[in-house]
């Protein structure tokens, strides 16, 4: 195994725990869907970067390193804060970056033939991760509740409160009781018309789509006497199709972005 790949996989193994597994299956699902839509040339290019490593597992690395001092600045790259009344055109952006600037940066990095293998591997990990993040509606979140992280909710019959961000990162996905391979196979049913439409978009469009889902995200319809909003079966049934569609869109768009980088003449399957 290439030394760079081994080093990153070692880092994953060392820090992997339930504390860091937050949203891991969502990222795996996106990467596995993307792999189904890569050209032969793109697949070969990615295998050369990863030395045959697993893109789905590589995409988890950015969540594991943001608490390490060397990468502490990356914690700002996973989201963008925008209040309801704000527009992206005149948005007050964080000085240390956000998910939009990070996507642009690592997309350009992956096109840079001068990068060494370690830099390519890191750029691929970050880019794959952030494509998934921007499609999760609460990664394009309100400032006051930190994208739902500060909004306590009651989840089903669980006695202890959790937060809304976790609901959309992992809890809704977990209700399907499928592993990431099974889930990606179930979701990867996009029509050619959908694929063509989703691929003809920019990073900013993905952010606008996530922001536009805010009404559904915060529509709890729970009893007023409860201390925290209740996430029950009705909320899950209403919103699971939304998060599943976002996972599918992210996978299709990740594949398209990687094909544009590594196989720009690829026109899709015939």
List keywords for this structure.
54% helix, globular, two-stranded parallel sheet, 270 residues, 5 strands, mainly alpha, 3-stranded mixed beta sheet, single chain, P1 Nuclease
Counting DSSP H or I runs of 4 or more residues, the number of helices is: 13
Write down the overall geometry: globular
- The helical percent reads 40-55%
Strand portion:
under 5%
How many strand segments? 5
What is the terminal separation in angstroms? Answer: 35 Å
The top level CATH class name: Mainly Alpha
Give a concise summary.
It is built from 13 helices and five strands. The protein is mostly helical. The strands form two sheets. It has a three-stranded mixed β-sheet with strand order 4-3-5.
Structure characterization notes:
This protein is mainly α. The chain has one domain: P1 Nuclease. It is built from 13 helices and five strands. The strands form two sheets. A three-stranded mixed sheet has the order 4-3-5. Strands 1-2 form a two-stranded parallel ribbon. Helix 3 packs across helix 13. The protein is globular and about 55 Å long. The two termini are about 35 Å apart.
Topology:
Elements (H helix, E strand, L loop, with lengths): L2 H13 L8 H12 L4 H11 L4 H4 L2 H5 L14 E2 L17 H12 L6 H19 L4 E2 L10 E4 L6 E2 H11 L5 H8 L4 H8 L3 H10 L1 H4 L12 E2 L1 H30 L8
Parallel strand pairs: 1-2, 3-5
Antiparallel strand pairs: 3-4
Helix pairs in contact: 2-7, 2-9, 2-13, 3-13, 6-7, 7-13
